[in-house]
Write a structure and sequence with these properties.
Distance between the termini: 91 Å
Strand order of the largest sheet: 12-13-14-15-16-17
Number of helices: 23
Strand content: 5-15%
Number of strands: 19
Number of domains: 5
Shape: globular
Largest sheet: 6 strands, mixed
Helix content: 40-55%
Structural class: alpha+beta
């Protein structure tokens, strides 16, 4: 009777269907999609590491020295018991990537830690060895190391100092030890809450003070440097030799751009030319990066392979392709040495080296994996670079290009079949246009965040300038490197200058078009994070669900329009104040002082001109601002801000105003919000937001906390 009870087809033997709720069904669907994309999981490793780097820099206070190592150890401890459970292992490895990024950033901070100047010093005698020379349109800028400063204790002396020389002062030789009289200041703090942090940038460059020389540098007898420093001095002298050769062979504008391409030095480019390059979308040609490295390595690889192929015994018995690949690696490394280890250069050289190593190993490169390896390497070596525009724009553009061409390469390959030379030429220019569009779209969010500017005709200018750079300028540049040791570089530089002239003309013509560039308000940090995460989702996955990434991208692009703008700004040194006029523009307290800060405030607002300046005794045209001999009063949304110029007015202002801004100490002021001399010295620039509900205050210190690179 029981024979059939447990047959295979018995309903008692079948598991009852499990009813899943909406969350269960969503998780199951997500698991299926992740399983389909298993081969792309690795690409998210540098993303997790970057999130760990970002977490470190977002902290308001420096964590304990053991925090990074402890986080890595904890993640490893969690990974071991979870190694047999895919979901648990994935979670543990994600935590490990975060911990590695956090630890790398903390370790890098400890390694570069040097004293930073706490207050202005000078006039004082400054002695140091010339490490770097940067040419400027009206002088030069020296980076000195092994520094001693008059009346400054050794343990408070910065490791490196950057000093500007006027055009009338002689420029010393790299590697020499000089003494000069200079005014020194701490590296400048951000000009507004959320603006670019110059102090952090200087800290990681090892520069603890900046200033200007009052006297010419005088040579000082000193012991010779060590072997490594002698090598770096020799490299710097070669870079100087390149600059001098460019200047001797070419007009000023062409010479400075040729030098930027050959030795990475952009500081000497005249401002009008630089403005044209930015407004036309050609500034990326000046930042030595992927295009230039690929051209140098590719041209050397191709030329060396062709030369070896002409020698029949070598071509038959030796692996000439692999020999040419080694030549390409050496060319890329030499180019890196000539232009300096900038973040885009490191990324480009790493990617180029990986491609050449794949040729040596007879392997096919996987482009996305190459950029993942390069990104991971840069994050571990220079984690602070992730916060700057160079890293973001360089990796953003390359990642978008690789992802886009992964999707469209089969169709492009089909188009190339059977077309003649005219069709191939048309496809080449179509490729330039398409690449320009993709790169422009990918880098636009970073331009909005860092520069508040978008070039609208970048595709047009790149279609002319990129081929000229690729097929004329850079080949002559490589020949210049070859001829420079022989002293025969001038003909190559002259020919290179013809191509540079075409690029300059293209930039100027494009920048002169109506509406060539658009200024927009600064994007908030949260908006940029949303765009980056959405863009990574679009680029790193391959299925249709990648389109979900469009939602955070669109939200991030809309964020500048939804961001509240400050109604009152007070510079940290008290030299400049601004209030928002009824038409939305900023009105400045002066149009002569603190021009750098004023320009930064206007650009972050997406403006190139300010509203009419503050009235002398009287009232502004919109009625919001009224001034007399003792100060001004600003009113908006039923709130009043007293802007005091004199301590005599403090008592009355403190009793009546919702916020008190004073350039004098205001210890006994009873106003709900007080921004006085001491608050400015502690917190830097302050921003006040007026609403019917009250006055909100934010300072530079509130945004960046108290970290090793912050100087009150």
């Amino acid at each position: 009777m029981t024979d059939g009870l447990f047959d295979d087809d018995s309903p008692l033997d079948a598991a009852p269907p499990v009813e899943r709720g909406p969350l269960g069904r969503a998780l199951a669907w997500l698991g299926e999609r992740l399983g389909e994309e298993r081969d792309r999981w690795f690409l998210w490793t540098p993303v997790g590491t970057g999130c760990g780097v970002a977490a470190y820099f977002a902290l308001p206070l420096e964590p304990p020295a053991w925090a990074g190592a402890a986080a890595v150890a904890m993640a490893l401890a969690l990974a071991w018991p979870a190694r047999r459970r895919p979901v648990g292992l994935a979670a543990a490895l994600t935590l490990l990537a975060l911990a590695v990024g956090f630890g790398a950033a903390q370790l890098r901070t400890a390694l570069v830690m040097e004293p930073m100047l706490r207050k202005p010093v000078g006039p004082a005698l400054v002695t140091g060895r010339v490490e770097i020379i940067e040419r400027l349109p009206d002088g030069a800028r020296l980076v000195l190391r092994e520094v001693s400063v008059e009346r400054l204790a050794p343990d408070a002396t910065p490791g490196r100092v950057r000093v500007r020389l006027s055009g009338r002062l002689a420029v010393p030789e790299a590697g020499s030890v000089v003494r000069l009289r200079a005014m020194l200041n701490p590296p400048p703090a951000p000009p507004a809450p959320g603006a670019f942090d110059f102090q952090r940038n200087a800290f990681f460059d090892g520069i603890g003070a900046t200033g200007f020389a009052l006297s010419g540098p005088e040579p000082v007898e000193a012991p010779p440097p060590g072997a490594w420093r002698r090598l770096m001095t020799a490299v710097e002298r070669v870079r100087e030799r390149i600059f001098d050769a460019c200047r001797a062979a070419l007009p000023t504008a062409e010479a400075t751009i040729a030098a930027a391409l050959l030795n990475g030095e952009q500081t000497g480019i005249p401002k009008p030319v630089m403005d044209d390059m930015r407004m036309s979308g050609l500034a990326h040609l000046l930042s030595v990066s992927g295009l230039h490295v690929a051209l140098v390595a590719g041209l050397v690889f191709g030329a060396l392979r062709a030369i070896l192929a002409l020698v029949e015994p070598l071509a038959l018995r030796w692996p000439i392709k692999k020999i040419a690949a080694v030549g390409g690696i050496l060319a890329a490394a030499g180019y890196l040495l000539a232009v300096g280890p900038q973040v885009p250069m490191l990324r480009s050289v790493l990617m180029t080296a990986m491609v050449m190593v794949a040729i040596l190993a007879d392997r096919t490169t996987m482009s996305m994996r190459v950029i993942a390896f390069a990104g991971m390497a840069v994050l571990l070596v220079l984690p602070e670079g992730m916060l700057g525009p160079s890293f973001q724009m360089s990796f953003g553009a390359v990642l978008a290009l690789i992802a886009a061409y992964e999707a469209i390469t089969p169709r492009l390959a089909a188009w190339r079949l059977g077309v003649g030379w005219f069709g191939k030429a048309a496809l080449y220019f179509l490729g330039i246009a398409l690449s320009s569009v993709i790169a422009t779209l990918a880098t636009t969010p970073f331009s909005l965040f860092h520069f508040q500017q978008v070039a609208l005709y970048g595709v047009l200018s790149n279609m002319l300038a990129v081929p000229v750079t690729s097929f004329w300028v850079m080949p002559w540049g490589i020949l210049t490197y070859v001829l420079l040791p022989l002293g025969w570089e001038q003909p190559a530089l002259v020919a290179m200058g013809w191509g540079v002239s075409v690029v300059i003309w293209t930039a100027h013509a494009t920048a002169s078009l109506p509406g060539a560039s658009l200024l927009v308000p600064a994007m908030p940090q949260a908006g940029l994070v949303a765009i980056v995460l959405g863009g990574l989702w679009l680029a790193l996955w391959s299925g249709r669900w990648r389109l979900w990434g469009l939602l955070p991208v669109l939200a991030g692009l809309a964020s500048p329009a939804l961001t509240e703008r400050p109604d009152v700004l007070v510079a940290g040194d008290g030299k400049l104040l601004a209030v928002r006029a009824a038409d939305g523009r900023l009105s400045l307290s002066t149009d002569t002082a603190a021009r750098f800060t004023a320009t930064a405030w206007l650009r972050r607002d997406g403006l190139d001109t300010a509203a009419p300046p503050w009235p002398k005794p009287g009232r502004s045209a919109d009625g919001r601002l009224a001034c007399d001999a003792l100060g001004c009063v600003y009113r908006k949304d039923g709130r009043t801000v007293a802007l005091s110029r004199n301590a005599e007015a403090q008592a009355e202002d403190c009793a009546l105003a919702d916020a008190m801004v004073s350039l004098e100490p205001a210890r006994h002021c009873r106003a709900p919000v007080v921004v006085d001399l001491w608050a400015l010295r502690r917190g830097g620039t302050h921003a006040l937001y007026l609403t019917p509900g009250g006055v909100r205050v934010e300072s530079v210190r509130d945004r960046r906390g108290q970290r090793p690179w912050t100087v009150p």
